[in-house]
Amino acid sequence: MMAASKGVCRVAAAVALVPWTVSHAAPPSTVDDRIALSANGESLTGTNGGKGGSFGWLHNFDADTLAGLGGEYQSLANAHWAFGSVNGAYTFGPGDERYSLYGEAHEGGGNNGTRHMHYHSEAFGTIGTFDRRLSLQLEAKHFDIDTVSGYLPKLGVQYLWNPHVQTALSYSYSVGNNNLGTRLAAGRLDIFEAGINFLGGFSFGQATANVVGTNLSNLNVPGLRLSEGYVGAKWPLPLARSELSVILDYQDLHSRLVESRRYQATLNYIFHVGHQGT
């Protein structure tokens, strides 16, 4: 099952264990290149599950400018799809008041088990960080995946309580002429420790899903209730100038007519090439 509201890209997941703001994530050197690789496996109610993988290249032109390219392949039940991605971010402002502009696009297609399907997703947003602790996010995202399409704005707030603990809350609400039918609240906790970082999060609400590869193939199911939780950990590997992370995800989609549970494990590996960044 593809929940159109999720729009996951494994390249993005590979850096999911760092704070939102580019000013936090940028390395101290002016130039840095990273290669991000990921692999995942998952189970899905009533199917033989699926698997996938991704690759990405992330480049810091300087401490404030980041761009990346990537690609992903995913199979689930009888469906499979692939897409390429491009993303970028630019941060500016004085030390205590930083602003980041970012954008990403995912373009591709696949087969839902019976016919060809397209996959298009774009997002643009801004994040303002004040007093190095409080961050506010505004994002606009567009989905056009198989028979599901629409716009999903998101508002978010993040607070860095101390150098080791960060929390985030967000709310997404689909607008305009679309069939997303999405209302999602989400939260996240990041813990930064020497030698290992942890994250955990949840989301819940309503979402319209495009069901593929099951006995409900190609059916848009309205009024689905979504519950999701995830945990993750990241280990820096200084000698190899790389980072290893694992994310475990549980998702439940249900209504009076449908109930589907998905479990997923994702392994990410990021290594630095050519420069002496962090």
Structure characterization notes:
The structure is a single chain. With 278 residues, the protein is mainly beta. 3% of the residues lie in helices and 70% in strands. It has helices at residues 10-13, 22-25; strands at 2-3, 32-44, 50-62, 65-76, 79-92, 97-111, 116-130, 134-145, 148-162, 165-173, 183-193, 196-211, 219-237, 242-254, 259-273. Strands 2-3-4-5-6-7-8-9-10-11-12-13-14-15 form a 14-stranded antiparallel beta barrel. Strand 2 and strand 3 form a beta hairpin. The longest helix is centred in the N-terminal third of the chain and has 4 residues, at 10-13. The protein starts with a strand and ends in a 5-residue tail after the last strand. Residues 1-28 and 211-219 have low confidence and may be disordered.
Main β-sheet, spatial strand arrangement: 2-3-4-5-6-7-8-9-10-11-12-13-14-15
Secondary structure category: mainly beta
Total number of beta strands: 15
Unreliable segments of 5+ consecutive residues: 1-28, 211-219
How far from one another are the termini? 37 Å
